[in-house]
Amino acid sequence: LAKTTQPISMDSYEGQEVNITCSHNNIATNDYITWYQQFPSQGPRFIIQGYKTKVTNEVASLFIPADRKSSTLSLPRVSLSDTAVYYCLVVAPSGSARQLTFGSGTQLTVLP
Amino acid sequence: DGGITQSPKYLFRKEGQNVTLSCEQNLNHDAMYWYRQDPGQGLRLIYYSQIVNDFQKGDIAEGYSVSREKKESFPLTVTSAQKNPTAFYLCASSSGGGRAYEQYFGPGTRLTVT
User: Fold this and answer.
1) CB contact burial B48-71 (16+ within 10 A = b; e otherwise)
2) Could you read off the pLDDT of B72-87 as tens digits, one per residue?
3) What is the pLDDT of residues A5-41, one digit of tens each?
4) Is B31 on the interface with A (CB under 8 A)?
5) Which of B40, B91, B101 is closest, CB to CB, to A32?
6) Does B56 contact chain A (CB < 8 Å)?
């Protein structure tokens, strides 16, 4: 089971780039790395997923080193509305029940 | 608009009563999931279903039951056997073909049992 470890909280200022790192030492060959964002009293929102190297979409970038034992979510030029909890998950395509547990995540607070 | 609907948004019940939470999706997704979230905590999987008429227990299935008679619907019943039912309940879905890592969530139902 690829358990993930993330910082509990991070602070940043508006306009800065934020990097949140997730450790997943026991990732399996067919596992994907996926990140979600959650605002208070709302369901999580899928942000990005990747398998290796770098993935970029309109919201974020995901950097995955060759050994895949960690990953970094990069949010460019954050704003106050990016204040949220960010979850890192490692999930096989079939999604076994043991993988579909969101840990406590990283509380990102963006300051003015 | 395509999406996932959960109703009601807030639900209050007396201890000892069963209660059913609704979850409907019009995304044509094969897989559906139920999670529980307690204050300040992450999400824990209760049940999931990868196809109609089939479902599997998650980490905390005790005291809950589900059914999956239609592709669009995955209701969750919180029974009186659930010792601490007060929580925020989230339903999600994902498309078939092995994309469990990309789930779409509903707005959630906040259940309070007194």
Assistant:
1) bbbeeeebeebebbeebbbebeeb
2) 999 999 999 899 999 9
3) 999 999 999 999 999 999 999 898 988 999 999 999 9
4) yes
5) B101
6) yes
